[in-house]
Amino acid sequence: MLLEIAIFNIASASLAEKAGADRLELCENPADGGTTPSYGTLKIVKEKIKIPIFPIIRPRGGDFLYNDDEFAAMKKDVELCRQLKFEGVVTGLLKADGSVDEERTKQLTALAYPMEVTFHRAFDRAADPLAALEAIIACGCQRILTSGQTPNAFDGKELIKQLIQRADDRIIIMPGSGVRSDNILALAEFTGAVEMHSSARKKVSSAMNFQQSKMKETIENISVNTDEIKKMRADLLKYR
Length: 240
Known about the structure:
The protein is an alpha/beta fold. The chain has a single domain (2-200, 228-237), classed as TIM Barrel (Alpha-Beta Barrel). 37% of the residues lie in helices and 18% in strands. The protein contains 8 helices and 10 strands. The protein has helices spanning 10-19, 39-48, 68-83, 102-112, 129-139, 157-167, 184-191, 226-237, and strands at residues 2-7, 23-26, 53-55, 88-91, 116-119, 143-146, 172-175, 195-198, 201-205, 220-224. Strands 3-2-1-8 form a 4-stranded parallel β-sheet, covered by helices on one side. The protein has a 4-stranded parallel β-sheet with strand order 4-5-6-7, with helices on one face. It has a two-stranded antiparallel ribbon with strand order 9-10. Helix 2 links the parallel strand 2 and strand 3 (53-55). The longest helix has 16 residues, at 68-83. The protein is globular, with a radius of gyration of 18 Å.
């Protein structure tokens, strides 16, 4: 049973690794649901972290319908991640009708090789999840990150279980979104999933001694809850 943790900065990468994460999904901009990290972040995290890292390839927040320039940027980012020797990337592309953009996904999968490719929660916006499953398999992706087309993976557990059964070991179905220590074991047991995804996210106060009161803001940073990661790892050890 593998535990993947989504992280949004360099400090969180080290914390998650030390707490027992098996793999990291590396993103920036949590308010947008995660976008492609900068070159500097990619380089430093790859140098510091020993466990597998999958950067997200997503040029912006919002929907997953990309124009030609955005797709060109995604291809460049995949090439960069391959050059930096990451173990995989995470991406997802849809057409306007809610179907998987198979042509472009196949291009990114080919560019990524020998890296693995995870199709992220763009899947949860697909019009037909079972058709999307078959399309993503045909594109050569190794896994799908999904919350079962609901905001919370535990609420989507029936579809996740169906997807795992339908996939029949042709692709990994990885539940994610709202996965925490109080539900991870039950979700794994119900669905039969062999990989789980969580951000274990928490907010931490800024270390700034001075903050400009006239700005009327509370500055907080995103980090990971290491106790939560340790609890999830301990729970997954019970799942055989």
